[in-house]
From TrEMBL, chain A:
Bilayer topology annotation: Multi-pass membrane protein
Positions of transmembrane segments: 6-24, 36-54, 60-79, 111-138, 150-172, 181-199, 235-258
Name of protein: Transport permease protein
Protein family per UniProt: Belongs to the ABC-2 integral membrane protein family.
Pfam families reported in the protein's UniProt record: ABC2_membrane (PF01061)
TrEMBL record, chain B:
Source taxonomy: Bacteria, Pseudomonadati, Pseudomonadota, Alphaproteobacteria, Hyphomicrobiales
Residue stretches making up the ABC transporter domain: 22-251
Transmembrane segments: none
Function: Involved in beta-(1-->2)glucan export. Transmembrane domains (TMD) form a pore in the inner membrane and the ATP-binding domain (NBD) is responsible for energy generation.
Region forming the signal peptide: none
Entries under SMART domains matching the protein: AAA (SM00382)
Protein name: ABC transporter ATP-binding protein
Family as reported in the entry's similarity comment: Belongs to the ABC transporter superfamily.
PANTHER family attached to this UniProt entry: ABC TRANSPORTER ATP-BINDING PROTEIN, ABC TRANSPORTER ATP-BINDING PROTEIN NATA
Gene Ontology molecular function: ATP binding
Domain of life: Bacteria
Keywords carried by this UniProt record: ATP-binding, Nodulation, Nucleotide-binding, Transport
Xref: InterPro entries: AAA+_ATPase, ABC_transporter-like_ATP-bd, ABC_transporter-like_CS, ABC_transporter_ATP-binding, P-loop_NTPase
Length: 272, 267
């Protein structure tokens, strides 16, 4: 993985080999599979009951049924998408296998693409049962959002990959001492992306920051759909444009951090 | 003029030896204040086995890491199988491989799963046949479907060697290949490496603290100390030069700074 080019000779065969490696790992460990299901299920149950309680006591929430539980599901796509990406990367650090991969013909872009596919697989294992729970327990059918759900999903998963790529680069450069960033960075986005409340709640100056984050557009779009029954295409296109910039920047940052790791010899240690 | 400029302005070992397996030319690696590797040059012909000797901190691992492209040199050049590293690494990484105590195979995957994944990464043809052959050659058959984390140290070393040989590499870089092995298994691994080199005309660069291993396997020895090459010759020639009968005695002379005196006395 010493070739830093992004595009030359991408091999689906090598990407497939990496996906196979993570698939073997998932199947070899029931706690890993259980963990994928456990937190999303807990989230949806807690927030679902909260939504029921509020809806019974506030006429606005009665009208805007599903905004909270919908927000929880979309937030989990964002958060679990990034975790799914980053944990697969961390597995290599924990296993001290990164050197083997770096010395193999695997290219950085192929490695990142395999991590993206794994984030989708892990997300599917965790979030699909979560949406079914929301349907059966709280009669909230996220799939009834229809095509807009695909737009929300794409924008959220693109942001989750950008964050995942960037934090993986940080861990690559700084070793496992930087591991906590993997678990915490996304929470810095939570209040600014206006997951549970509209952007208008924020002070004006902070609204500019919020609108710089693609997830804000997805959550605003979801509320517009559930409350006003309007799909805001403009919001989705703006989010897509920012996501394209973020993804490009995260690829660039990953390659720069990989190069820095090779200059400083961090790939030999990989530890703290 | 930077060190890179200086290095590129003179005729280089790499330029002179396009067919060499490895050509290292005025290689320097500086970490902050420490010169881990200090202006070393050597060329390894194809089909040779060379031992890289030196105490802890001598620069062996950094040298091997620069050859592999895992560490970028501060200055100087590395050419592997006729290609510059790391710029042209895509052309050579599939033709080389390595084993090192600094890396592990994934613990939860079985031996067969690990070899399958790496075989696919290296685009090995007829992979299941290749795995079956390696399992037979390296005596892995009894535990091939056991998780790597449940193997003994000796078994893990054999699996790591199988991974290093999965793509039948032209160039094999080994860092302490028999560390933590009992004498019988270590001897068996050495015999396998000798056979592999002979049958495949492969080039092997081996960093080791085991002097008997180096004496037995290597047709050339490079001794490093504080990042520099202290000596570079056939084992017998080095022992004769230091007036010693074993490489271990030579190693102690070099490590304890008795090298020059001993060489003078031998003359």
């Amino acid at each position: 993985m010493t070739d830093l080019s992004l595009h030359r000779g991408i091999s689906l065969h090598r990407i497939g080999a990496m996906i196979l490696r993570y698939w073997y790992l998932l199947l070899s460990s029931w706690p890993r599979l259980l963990e994928l299901l456990y937190w999303p299920a807990l989230q949806v149950i807690t927030w679902g009951f909260l939504q029921l309680y509020i809806a019974e006591n506030a006429s606005f929430f009665a009208r805007a049924g599903g905004t909270l539980i919908g927000a929880v599901i979309l937030w989990d796509i964002l958060f679990r998408g990034q975790l799914g990406f980053s944990i697969s990367f961390l597995e290599e650090m924990w296993a001290r296998n990164l050197g083997n991969l770096m010395m193999s013909p695997l290219k950085p872009i192929e490695f990142l693409l395999s991590l993206m596919v794994m984030s989708l697989i892990r997300l599917a294992i965790g979030v699909i049962p979560m949406t079914l729970l929301a349907l059966f327990l709280f009669h909230f059918n996220v799939y009834a959002l229809g095509l807009p759900l695909i737009a929300f999903f794409c924008n959220l998963i693109f942001t989750s990959w950008s964050v995942g790529i960037f934090v993986s680069g940080l861990v690559l450069r700084n070793g496992l001492g930087a591991e906590s960033i993997v678990w915490t960075l996304m929470f810095a986005i939570l209040p600014l992306a206006c997951v549970y409340y509209p952007v208008s709640v924020l002070p004006v100056w902070l609204q500019y920051v919020a609108w710089a984050l693609p997830p804000t557009y997805a959550f605003e779009g979801m509320r517009a759909l559930l409350i006003e029954h309007t799909f805001r295409t403009d919001l989705m296109l703006q989010a897509l444009a920012i996501n394209a910039l973020l993804l490009a920047a995260s690829f660039w940052a990953f390659l720069a951090l990989l190069r820095s790791a090779r200059e400083h010899g961090s790939l030999l240690s990989g530890g703290e | 003029m930077t060190e890179n400029d200086k290095a590129s302005s003179r005729p280089t070992v790499a330029d002179r030896s396009p067919s060499a397996a490895i050509a290292v030319d005025h290689l320097v690696k500086v970490y902050k204040q420490t010169r881990a590797v200090d202006d070393i040059s050597f060329t390894l012909p194809r089909g040779s086995i060379t031992g890289l000797l030196g105490g802890n901190g001598a620069g062996k691992t950094t040298t091997i890491a620069m050859i592999m492209g895992l560490v970028l040199p501060t200055s100087g050049r590395v050419q592997v199988l006729g290609h510059r590293m790391p710029e042209e690494s895509a052309a050579v990484l599939g033709r080389m491989n390595f084993e090192s105590p600094y890396v592990d195979m994934p613990m939860r995957l079985t031996v067969r799963q690990n070899l399958t994944v790496f075989g696919k990464l290296y685009a090995v043809k007829n992979l299941s046949d290749r795995i079956a052959k390696l399992a037979a050659d390296l005596d892995l058959t009894d535990f091939i479907d056991r998780a790597n984390g449940k193997l003994s140290a000796g078994q893990k070393t054999r699996v790591a060697l199988a991974k290093a040989l999965i793509n039948q590499p032209e160039l094999l870089l080994l860092d302490e290949p028999t560390a933590s092995l009992d004498p019988d298994t270590a001897d068996w691994v050495r015999a396998h490496l000798e056979r592999y080199r002979r049958d495949n005309d492969a080039t092997i660069l081996l960093a080791s603290h085991n002097m008997l291993e180096v004496e037995r396997l290597c047709d050339r020895v490079i001794i490093m100390k504080r990042g520099r090459i202290e000596d570079d010759d056939a084992p017998e020639a080095i022992m004769a030069r230091y007036n010693r009968t074993t490489l271990e005695e030579v190693f102690l002379d070099v490590a304890r700074g008795r090298a020059n005196g001993t060489k003078e006395a031998a003359r």
